[in-house]
């Protein structure tokens, strides 16, 4: 009603201006006769009378009511009918609009009529338009119109605007997670939900003004007025406006306007327009001090763009929470003690059984929300995309606005369920205490995936499997769900290719086994696993899975604590303690990528770690005590192998070998920084490596091997039987025998293939008690392949008490004709110890062989029992070339060539001088002769 009253006032105001000729100054004008008949309707042009068409372009800079940014207008004004005496005119006015903000189009097309009233010296008119506007987000249309009165001095006009068709369009919505959340019926609402619209506004504007200046080609008028626009969802825009227009020539006009209201605030708009042939369309152009009679051909003054407002409307309940996986609203079935309703928040079910019996729950895509602290028995089968949650822990759901905590969650109230849950695709189970007895499982999943089991406890008693996961098609996550089991099996994973993760979910089984994985793929991750008195704590058979167990505590396993067979993925044990295994601590066969690290293996019945037909292995930082056979054994290994940082001790039992590695294919093996000790027990070799096939690189570095009061085999024994190429490095090791019996300190034998060998910076029996050793370093070259050996900077004995060695370094060359050996800078029994020979070189087999040897800068002390510093024996039909210089010895350098044998000695005449005055002895019926250079 307010608007109607306003319209009446405006019309009355316009009428008062219309009849206000008594205050208008009557200008002078030419009384030229424009009368004519119908044949003269179009004047001199034969088309138009006094008023001609005119075309133009205008540009409005700045914002205005309902528009942001500038506006370009391409304009056309066409006279349609002109009165007999040119006192009235009907016209067509059309414009094409282009805005600056989005470069979108709009249009105005309208018709109007004006009548000049000579008796009042005033022009009155009316017009009606259809307008369009494309905002870039929505398209709007409107019908608009207006009336006007134009005088010589005073003007007034009233315009109205009414949208048609679509008046408001939803542009987008936002849902901010901040705010409260509330259950209403079966749904959850909350957050801040905002809808963004664009709306075309209905309105009216009015202005009145007068001429304030006229010049020869200038006409300036000033206006003031008001306007009102409204649309549903937007405050009404009541505002004032003022405007100054100036015509500075026949074709150029300027316009400056200012508007203000509470919706659009203050806007300032400046416009310039160009019209041709003239602004008024007068045939002979406008006059100075333009009178009302000459203004019938002007384009009406009005808002050209449809007034559009941007709306932002918030829902008081917040938004409906959507499940992104389905695009549908979350549907809740509520369970509450004493409930007997339909599962709404206001009228919940009383039991889980009632909720699961509902057909809506059986269809899936629901959340069963249990608010109780009550006990219930039953076996529950979840439909697809069903979540079963209790209010005990903090419960979160994933929505279109991110993670949202459910109202009433984190209460600490946990339902106790005696029975089981069978999961389906995209199942979530959270916040229950589950108890199961007998052969059935607590959690069952078969042929499904995308599972989440969190914040539960599982207690299972009996022969059954507590958690059974079969043929998974997607991931399964167990989070903060500890399993306590008595008897039977803790977790079974069989078939499928889904990732399985246990996070903060320990598995404890007394009188049963922890994990059984059969024919599975994917990535499988376990945390803490504890078993007591079972058979095999972790059993893996077949499959492609990549399996990790963070920590395993196995006590009194009846067989192997860990058993891995036919696994083509990987297995990693990151720590734990395996005690009193009935067989091995860990067995891996016919598998690849096996890692056992940071694990203590105590008193296994057989090996600590046993690997057969394994490609790529890493056994590091483990402690193995009192293995009955080998500490670590690898048979027919290949690929990349690492045995590093382990502590292997024989305290009360006699292991066979501490580390026994047999390589059966191309491989790189690192055996580094292990500590091996044998105390009060018989024991085998410290580190035993053999190759049967492939090209093999072996690095044995930084190990400590100690025998105390017992008989040890070799400290390090390497045997190359492969026909491939061997690269062997034995460096930085310490081998000690305290008051006991040792075999060779380091023994390297090649029975086939080619080899490059480095034995350097090792310490053998340094500063300890009375002991017996075999050879300190033994090198046996029984191959026809090419070999290159460096024995450098080793310390053998240096014992201040008593040590008995066979030889310090012994070189035994039985076959082949391309052997180079470099023995340099070694210290052999500098202050104590008895040796047969400090360095012995022997070529005495029946097969012809040839070698070159360099013996330089060694300290050869302590030989006893008829031994020598350097003892060289060459039988028939062998050939040896010797370079010896810079050595220091307290005995002699002896050379014996049997009949048919040849020893070439570099600079033989000066051999004693070159070796610090050592005695040189030559003997035998063969050839011992001088040569210029063994290594030209």
From TrEMBL:
Residue ranges constituting the Right handed beta helix domain according to the UniProt record? 490-648
UniProt-listed InterPro entries: Beta_helix, IAT_beta_sf, PbH1, Pectin_lyas_fold, Pectin_lyase_fold/virulence
Give the signal sequence positions.
Answer: 1-20
Q: What SUPFAM superfamilies does this protein map onto?
A: Pectin lyase-like
Name the residues that span the membrane. Answer: none
Q: Gene3D superfamilies given for it?
A: Inverse autotransporter, beta-domain, Single-stranded right-handed beta-helix, Pectin lyase-like
Query: Which keywords does this Swiss-Prot/TrEMBL entry list?
Result: Signal
Protein name, UniProt field: Right handed beta helix domain-containing protein
């Amino acid at each position: 009603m307010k608007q109607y009253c306003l319209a009446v006032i405006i019309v009355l105001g316009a009428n008062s201006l219309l009849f206000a000729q008594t205050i208008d100054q009557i200008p002078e004008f030419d009384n030229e006769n424009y009368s004519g008949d119908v044949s003269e309707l179009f004047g001199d042009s034969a088309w138009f009378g006094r008023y001609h068409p005119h075309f133009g372009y205008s540009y409005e800079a700045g914002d205005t009511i309902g528009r942001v940014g500038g506006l370009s207008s391409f304009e056309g004004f066409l006279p349609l009918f002109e009165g007999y005496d040119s006192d009235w005119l009907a016209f067509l006015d059309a414009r094409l609009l282009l805005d600056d903000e989005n470069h979108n189009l709009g249009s105005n097309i309208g018709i109007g009529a004006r009548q000049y009233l000579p008796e009042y010296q005033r022009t009155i008119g009316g017009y009606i338009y259809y307008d369009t506007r494309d905002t870039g987000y929505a398209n709007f249309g409107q019908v608009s119109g207006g009336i006007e009165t134009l005088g010589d001095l005073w003007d007034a006009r009233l315009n109205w605007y009414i949208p048609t068709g679509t008046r408001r369009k939803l542009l987008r919505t936002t849902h901010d997670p901040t705010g409260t959340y509330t259950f209403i019926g079966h749904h959850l609402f909350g957050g801040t939900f905002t809808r963004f619209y664009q709306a075309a506004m209905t309105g009216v504007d009015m202005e009145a003004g007068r001429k304030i200046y006229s010049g020869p080609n200038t006409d300036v008028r000033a206006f003031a007025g008001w306007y009102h626009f409204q649309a549903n969802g937007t405050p009404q825009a009541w505002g004032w406006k003022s405007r100054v227009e100036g015509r500075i020539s026949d074709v150029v006009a300027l316009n400056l306007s200012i508007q203000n209201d509470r919706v659009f605030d203050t806007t300032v708009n400046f416009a310039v327009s160009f019209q041709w042939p003239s602004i008024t369309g007068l045939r002979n152009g406008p006059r100075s001090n333009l009178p009302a009679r000459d203004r019938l051909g002007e384009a009406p003054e009005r808002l050209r763009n449809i007034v559009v407002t941007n709306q932002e409307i918030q829902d008081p309940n917040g938004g409906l929470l959507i499940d992104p996986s389905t695009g549908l609203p979350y549907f809740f079935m509520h369970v509450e003690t004493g409930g007997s309703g339909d599962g709404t928040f206001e009228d919940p079910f009383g039991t889980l059984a009632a909720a699961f019996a509902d057909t809506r729950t059986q269809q899936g895509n629901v959340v069963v929300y249990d608010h109780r602290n009550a006990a219930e028995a039953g076996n529950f089968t979840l439909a697809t995309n069903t979540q079963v949650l209790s209010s005990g822990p903090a419960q979160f759901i994933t929505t279109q606005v991110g993670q949202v905590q459910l109202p009433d969650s984190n209460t600490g109230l946990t339902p106790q369920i005696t029975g089981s849950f069978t999961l389906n695709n995209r199942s979530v189970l959270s916040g229950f205490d589950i108890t199961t007895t007998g052969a059935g499982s607590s959690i069952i999943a078969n042929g499904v995936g995308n599972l989440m089991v969190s914040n539960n406890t599982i207690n299972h008693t009996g022969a059954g499997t507590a958690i059974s996961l079969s043929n998974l098609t997607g991931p399964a996550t167990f989070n903060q769900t500890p399993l306590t089991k008595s008897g039977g099996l803790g977790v079974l994973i069989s078939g499928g290719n889904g990732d399985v993760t246990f996070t903060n979910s320990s598995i404890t089984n007394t009188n049963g086994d922890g994990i059984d994985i059969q024919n599975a793929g994917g990535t499988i991750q376990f945390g803490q696993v504890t078993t007591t008195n079972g058979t095999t704590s972790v059993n893996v058979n077949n499959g492609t899975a990549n399996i990790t167990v963070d920590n395993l505590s196995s006590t009194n396993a009846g067989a192997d604590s860990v058993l891995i067979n036919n696994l083509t993925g990987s297995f990693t044990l990151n720590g734990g303690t395996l005690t009193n295994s009935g067989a091995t601590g860990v067995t891996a066969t016919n598998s690849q990528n096996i890692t056992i690290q940071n694990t203590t293996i105590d008193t296994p019945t057989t090996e600590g770690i046993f690997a057969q037909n394994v490609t790529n292995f890493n056994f590091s930082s483990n402690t193995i005590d009192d293995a009955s056979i080998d500490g670590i054994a690898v048979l027919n290994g290949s690929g990349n192998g690492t045995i590093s940082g382990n502590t292997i001790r024989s305290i009360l039992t006699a292991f066979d070998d501490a580390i026994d590695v047999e390589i059966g294919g191309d491989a790189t093996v690192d055996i580094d920084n292990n500590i091996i000790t044998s105390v009060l027990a018989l024991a085998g070799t410290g580190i035993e490596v053999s190759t049967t096939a492939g090209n093999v690189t072996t690095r044995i570095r930084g190990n400590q091997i100690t025998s105390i009061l017992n008989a040890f085999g070799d400290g390090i024994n390497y045997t190359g039987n492969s026909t491939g190429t061997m690269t062997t490095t034995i460096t930085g090791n310490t081998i000690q025998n305290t008051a006991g019996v040792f075999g060779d300190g380091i023994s390297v034998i090649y029975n086939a293939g080619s080899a490059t060998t480095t034995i350097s910076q090792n310490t053998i029996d340094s500063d300890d008690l009375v002991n017996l050793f075999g050879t300190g370093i033994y090198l046996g070259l029984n191959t026809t392949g090419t070999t290159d050996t460096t024995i450098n900077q080793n310390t053998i004995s240096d014992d201040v008490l008593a040590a008995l060695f066979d030889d310090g370094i012994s070189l035994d060359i039985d076959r082949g004709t391309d052997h180079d050996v470099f023995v340099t800078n070694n210290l052999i029994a500098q202050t104590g110890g008895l040796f047969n020979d400090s360095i012995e070189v022997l070529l005495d087999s029946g097969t012809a062989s040839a070698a070159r040897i360099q013996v330089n800068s060694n300290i050869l002390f302590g030989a006893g029992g008829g031994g020598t510093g350097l003892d060289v024996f060459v039988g028939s039909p062998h050939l040896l070339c010797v370079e010896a210089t810079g050595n220091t010895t307290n005995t002699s350098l002896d050379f014996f060539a049997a009949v048919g044998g040849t020893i070439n000695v570099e600079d033989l005449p000066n051999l004693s001088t070159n070796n610090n005055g050592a005695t040189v002895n030559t003997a035998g019926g063969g050839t011992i002769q001088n040569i210029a250079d063994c290594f030209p």
